[in-house]
């Protein structure tokens, strides 16, 4: 397996959904470390004032919105349900797996395209102070989905992204999706009770490692596809990388009848989540910096009407 991988989700099954919130926010804060001053200025005009120009603060909005009646349509945008059979066979295909109504790949493409228009509005002075909701939402979705797509179980269809796959972690009866969303990052950060403050040092250390290029795969390889003008191609590359982890690690280990914290499963997953979280942050910053610079000639790849018919199993 070339890429280690993982991160958090939005299929909120656990009661401690603050984990999700905090991990997403922390990815946003990590990304802020790599934004150019120009990009930061653009963002400040797009987000509503209460976010204080911070994509970290805005990064978890998409999960809350998906669980409102108004935002229900966007719930399925948080993942792509691959029709594969890990750990024996892994693959994700856009036309097959991106459901009618959208998936994380089409949503990244659509919202990136909208965000590009919004940045033009900032540049011509017609958008200031977060006054266009379509634009603020586009930025918040892009921020959130570039995090979600690095979580292996957001690019995996079986057992509803692991939500229906019961496991035990640290004595808790839970399921595999929640384990990758929260329990593993929690255990890796070495905090008994996961919170934003306890997670910050862990994430700051990841930022240092990104700067030092101190991962098994060089950061340049994370950015092989990072052109916002080819969003379906890039998002599919990221989804395929996440999906591959479900064969090489997530569903490969023997974890039934064991506690995943004691069995070595969690420890084996730590490098994967560290890498995937770090990729999410650096890609997000690079994506936004590139958009803000304005080099953008959109390819013709269609994302308007995903024709896949993967089974959607809504679990919340
Ligand atoms: C908000 O931005 C969107 C996306 O560019 C655009 O279609 C819409 O017209 C804008 N709304 C206003 C009121 O300017
Ligand atoms: C998984 O756990 C849930 C909640 O405890 C339970 O309702 C469900 O029947 C379990 N599923 C399986 C396949 O054991
Ligand atoms: C989380 O922690 C970061 C870094 O310490 C801080 O800047 C941010 O405001 C915190 N977020 C929340 C929602 O408390
Ligand atoms: C549980 O693990 C055992 C031992 O590896 C394996 O033979 C069995 O198929 C597993 N059962 C399930 C339901 O995954
Ligand atoms: C694209 O985004 C707009 C604005 O959020 C939304 O109304 C539309 O349904 C989206 N289209 C697709 C194909 O995702």
TrEMBL record:
Superkingdom, taxonomy of origin: Eukaryota
GO biological-process terms attached to the record: DNA catabolic process
Annotated coiled-coil segments of the chain: none
SUPFAM superfamilies for this protein: Phospholipase C/P1 nuclease
Gene3D superfamilies, A to Z: P1 Nuclease
InterPro entries given in the database record: PLipase_C/P1_nuclease_dom_sf, S1/P1nuclease
GO molecular function, one term: hydrolase activity, acting on ester bonds
Signal peptide span: 1-18
Pfam families, A to Z: S1-P1_nuclease
Keyword tags: Disulfide bond, Endonuclease, Glycoprotein, Hydrolase, Metal-binding, Nuclease, Signal
Family: Belongs to the nuclease type I family.
Protein's recorded name: Phospholipase C/P1 nuclease
Annotated source species: Tothia fuscella
């Amino acid at each position: 397996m070339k890429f280690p991988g993982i991160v958090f989700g939005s299929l909120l099954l656990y009661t401690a959904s603050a984990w999700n919130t905090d991990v997403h926010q922390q990815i946003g804060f990590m990304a802020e470390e790599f934004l150019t001053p120009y990009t930061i200025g653009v963002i400040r005009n797009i987000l509503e004032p209460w976010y204080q120009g911070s994509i970290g603060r805005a990064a978890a909005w998409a999960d809350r919105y998906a669980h409102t009646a108004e935002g229900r349509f966007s719930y399925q945008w948080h993942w792509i349900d691959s029709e594969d059979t890990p750990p024996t066979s892994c693959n994700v295909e856009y036309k097959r797996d991106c459901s009618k109504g959208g998936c994380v790949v089409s949503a990244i493409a659509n919202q990136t395209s909208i965000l590009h228009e919004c940045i033009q509005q900032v540049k011509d002075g017609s958008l200031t102070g977060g006054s266009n909701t379509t634009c603020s939402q586009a930025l918040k979705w892009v921020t959130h989905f570039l995090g979600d797509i690095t979580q292996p179980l957001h690019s995996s269809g079986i057992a509803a992204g692991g939500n229906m796959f019961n496991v035990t972690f640290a004595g808790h009866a839970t399921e595999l999706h929640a384990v990758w969303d929260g329990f593993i990052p929690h255990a890796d950060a070495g905090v008994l009770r996961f919170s934003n403050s306890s997670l910050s040092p862990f994430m700051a250390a990841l930022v240092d490692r990104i700067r030092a290029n101190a991962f098994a795969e060089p950061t340049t390889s994370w950015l092989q596809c990072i052109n916002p003008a080819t969003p379906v191609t890039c998002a599919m590359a990221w989804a395929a990388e996440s999906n591959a982890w479900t064969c090489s690690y997530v569903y490969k280990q023997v974890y039934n009848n064991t506690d995943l914290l004691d069995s070595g499963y969690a420890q084996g997953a730590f490098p994967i989540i560290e890498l995937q979280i770090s990729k999410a942050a650096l890609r997000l910053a690079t994506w936004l910096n590139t958009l803000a610079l304005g080099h953008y000639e959109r390819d013709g790849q269609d994302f308007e009407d995903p024709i896949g018919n993967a089974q959607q199993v809504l679990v919340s």
